[in-house]
């Protein structure tokens, strides 16, 4: 695919998202999601191999099912001769289910790791970040049933940690990590759009750092990590710390949005949900620890520190902002 077509499809991909989140009619919301989906198909097929073809077909079938459910609910909604965005309880639940299927939130997650494991890192970055924006914002347009959404939050945090434990494929580990973060994002947007936005931006920054390193060194399995990173100790060090940040371990930046979300859940009396999220996040931390502890050993730590002194300052500053901005963000949290 030439750069011209990449620009065209990327532009229509963004156009579909903006159309969905800015529309005042459910038909245009649905149209925006369809434009977004059809623009992504050629991008997913950019690298021709049997795995990407299979993943593209799976993704299209699941998204088409979700779109059908959503369109069915919208037709029911307009049959009531209503013109605003206010939905009945039944329509709201159907649209919420369709959107959660699009997002890959558990227990509708069955397709997500399979699709991610068949794609290259560039396409995966779009699936893990940009493709979440429209569905999760549209969730706020529905009359969100907190009990209904809480079930998906609990399942997402529980299943991602348990199923991600024994994975050796890094794409599947990243996919289960995304499902875990999806639970946190849903719990954040249930109460505060600004906290969700904060969470999403930080999650995108950390994912960008990790996926750039994996893409640059063409790494797809855990067995490749030590072999490939042994030639560049500073990359190995930054990769390990970014993974800990993705897991939400303090004092890294990834801890900040989780801290905000927990504070907000407690403030709005969702005590049980906050406790369940914390417990299953501790379980999922094992997934991140497996990777980082196998890479960072006491014997190699001194050589890593020496190599960091020689590192490019621009690259170092990007990682520094990603890893140790907790104190800066804590200050800005006073204005949320």
Automatic annotation (TrEMBL):
Q: Which GO terms describe its biological process?
A: mitochondrial electron transport, NADH to ubiquinone
Indicate yes or no for the key word NAD.
yes
Residue stretches spanning the membrane: 12-37, 57-78, 90-112, 132-161, 173-190, 196-217, 237-256, 268-288, 313-333
Per UniProt, what is one Pfam family of this protein?
Answer: Proton_antipo_M
Q: A single GO molecular function, which one?
A: NADH dehydrogenase (ubiquinone) activity
Q: GO CC terms on record?
A: mitochondrial inner membrane
Please tell me which top-level EC class this enzyme sits in.
Answer: translocase
Regarding the membrane, this protein is recorded as:
Multi-pass membrane protein
Q: What positions does the domain NADH:quinone oxidoreductase/Mrp antiporter transmembrane occupy?
A: 23-279
Give the EC number(s) listed in the UniProt record: 7.1.1.2
**Cellular location of this protein?**
Mitochondrion inner membrane
Q: Which keywords belong to this entry?
A: Electron transport, Membrane, Mitochondrion, Mitochondrion inner membrane, NAD, Respiratory chain, Translocase, Transmembrane, Transmembrane helix, Transport, Ubiquinone
Q: What reaction(s) does this enzyme catalyze?
A: a ubiquinone + NADH + 5 H(+)(in) = a ubiquinol + NAD(+) + 4 H(+)(out)
Chief place where the protein resides: mitochondrion
| Family membership | Belongs to the complex I subunit 2 family.
The UniProt function text for this chain reads: Core subunit of the mitochondrial membrane respiratory chain NADH dehydrogenase (Complex I) which catalyzes electron transfer from NADH through the respiratory chain, using ubiquinone as an electron acceptor. Essential for the catalytic activity and assembly of complex I. Core subunit of the mitochondrial membrane respiratory chain NADH dehydrogenase (Complex I) that is believed to belong to the minimal assembly required for catalysis. Complex I functions in the transfer of electrons from NADH to the respiratory chain. The immediate electron acceptor for the enzyme is believed to be ubiquinone.
Q: What is this protein called?
A: NADH-ubiquinone oxidoreductase chain 2
* Organism name: Meriphus longirostris
What does UniProt list as this organism's lineage?
A: Eukaryota, Metazoa, Ecdysozoa, Arthropoda, Hexapoda
């Amino acid at each position: 695919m030439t750069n011209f077509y990449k620009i065209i499809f990327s532009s229509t991909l963004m156009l579909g998202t903006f159309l969905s989140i800015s529309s005042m009619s459910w038909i245009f919301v649905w149209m925006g999601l369809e434009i977004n989906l059809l623009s992504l198909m050629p991008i997913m097929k950019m690298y021709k191999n049997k795995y990407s073809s299979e993943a593209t077909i799976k993704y299209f079938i699941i998204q088409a099912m979700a779109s059908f459910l959503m369109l069915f609910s919208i037709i029911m909604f307009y049959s009531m001769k209503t013109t605003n965005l206010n939905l009945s309880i039944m329509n709201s639940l159907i649209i919420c289910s369709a959107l959660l299927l699009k997002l890959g939130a558990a227990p509708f997650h069955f397709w997500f790791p399979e699709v991610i494991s068949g794609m290259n890192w560039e396409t995966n970055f779009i699936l893990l970040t940009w493709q979440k924006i429209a569905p999760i914002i549209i969730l706020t347009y529905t009359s969100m049933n907190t009990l209904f959404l809480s079930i998906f939050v609990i399942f997402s945090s529980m299943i991602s940690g348990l199923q991600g434990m024994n994975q050796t494929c890094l794409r599947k580990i990243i996919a289960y990590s995304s499902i875990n973060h999806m639970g946190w994002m849903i719990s954040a947007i249930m109460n505060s759009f600004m906290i969700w936005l904060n969470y999403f931006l930080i999650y995108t920054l950390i994912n960008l750092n990790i996926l750039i390193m994996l893409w640059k060194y063409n790494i797809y399995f855990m067995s490749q990590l030590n072999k490939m990173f042994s030639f560049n100790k500073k990359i190995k060090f930054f990769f390990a710390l970014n993974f800990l940040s993705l897991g939400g371990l303090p004092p890294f930046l990834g801890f900040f949005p989780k801290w905000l979300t927990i504070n907000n859940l407690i403030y709005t009396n969702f005590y049980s949900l906050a406790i369940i999220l914390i417990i299953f996040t501790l379980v999922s931390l094992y997934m991140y620890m497996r990777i980082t502890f196998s890479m960072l050993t006491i014997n190699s730590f001194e050589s890593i520190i020496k190599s960091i002194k020689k590192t490019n300052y621009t690259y170092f500053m990007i990682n520094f902002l990603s890893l140790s901005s907790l104190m800066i963000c804590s200050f800005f949290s006073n204005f949320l």
